[in-house]
Amino acid sequence: MVFGNAVAVPASELVALAVVAAACLAVHLLFAKEIAFVSFDHETALALGMSVRGWDAALFLTIGLAIPVSARVLGALPVFAFLTLPAAAALLLRVGFWLAFLVAAGIGVVAAGAGYVLSWLWEIPTGATMVTIAALLLLPGALGRRAGG
User: Fold this and answer.
1) Which of 57, 64, 115, 149 suits a disulfide with 129, CB 3.0-4.6 Å?
2) Are the CB atoms for 19 and 70 separated by under 8 Å?
3) The pTM is what?
4) Contact of 31 with 62, CB cutoff 8 Å
């Protein structure tokens, strides 16, 4: 469970991961505006009469479904790293709120793909290689911030 194995995943777990990913993606695409508004401006959402508890529950339910299924397939290290590193890299680039989601997803895909290929070529652990690539992709934004950019 801690390390997982992105290389040898049983078909049944891939199906479970696909179903959970599709459900979470659907919820987040259909209700992105509401979830983001409630998450970032709790008080105003309450004042406008929005169901803050309901939207929070939807967000936490999708997170609560996605993390254990993903951790079972990939392991805890890659899952928790991919929850934070791509988002941090995108936010360091200062690209704006909605574009940050796309940039973070792109960074995640690039880190996962490159990590998978490099781990195969160099015969090193897949999850750790993916995480290392994701961490390296933090550098452009971090260096830009440090330089005052």
Assistant:
1) 115
2) no
3) 0.82
4) no
